[in-house]
């Protein structure tokens, strides 16, 4: 469209004009969600975030298998930015949230992390505490590298045996994310129901500084 010495922005504008593309796309309407109830699910997490997130928040998504329901549920939330997982690089969420909080200290950052992904880089919690970063980390504690189980099934190698499946499990021993966070100076709580999560999400989004919710889903 444009050589290095030409105006790339102008070239894109001309292309948009040629295609009849509008200057801006449609904006999703603000949605009001009732409080979620029952057994906690990733979709419930998304509903609670949508209910309580302030405008201008930044979501750093490393939720992997749990991230898509949250993305769908927050489409009608207050305007916010979404930092997506790059390729299959699980483990990016917590350090990505650190970077976002340092770059935009006046904006709330919400980190979505699978428990498997979080085990790659949980030392970022210590950095959040040390630098007093305004980050709420939500860990989806399904106690499994679920995305890797999916990828294993896609190989077509048949039914994996107990030795293979045990390597992708996080329940022997289970990781206590509340203790892990508190040991690094981060306020934390575990929620097992949608009602409990909604209450805790509202509380932690309203507070300043680092916090963590272990979501049992």
Assigned CATH superfamily: Thiamin diphosphate (ThDP)-binding fold, Pyr/PP domains
Spatial extent as radius of gyration? 20 Å
How much of the sequence lies in strands comes to 5-15%
Tell me the major beta sheet. Answer: 6 strands, parallel
Q: Order of strands across the widest beta sheet?
A: 2-1-3-4-6-5
The total count of strands amounts to: 6
State the end-to-end distance. Answer: 47 Å
Indicate the CATH topology: Rossmann fold
Structural class based on helices, strands and sheet pairing: alpha/beta
Return the CATH class. Alpha Beta
Provide the helix percentage.
40-55%
In total, the number of domains comes to 1
Give the overall shape.
Answer: globular
Could you spell the SSE succession in H and E letters? Answer: HHEHEHEHHEHHHEHE
Mean pLDDT score: 93
Name the CATH architecture. Answer: 3-Layer(aba) Sandwich
Number of helices: 10
> What are the low-pLDDT stretches, counting only 5+ consecutive residues below 50?
none
Polypeptide structure, described:
It is a single chain. A six-stranded parallel beta sheet has the order 2-1-3-4-6-5, with helices on both faces. It is an alpha/beta fold and 217 residues long. The chain has a single domain, classed as 3-Layer(aba) Sandwich (Rossmann fold). Helix 2 packs parallel to helix 3 (67-73) and helix 2 (42-52) runs parallel beside helix 10 (194-206). It has helices spanning 8-19, 42-52, 67-73, 93-103, 115-121, 124-131, 146-154, 162-166, 177-183, 194-206, and strands spanning 57-62, 80-83, 109-114, 135-140, 187-191, 211-215.
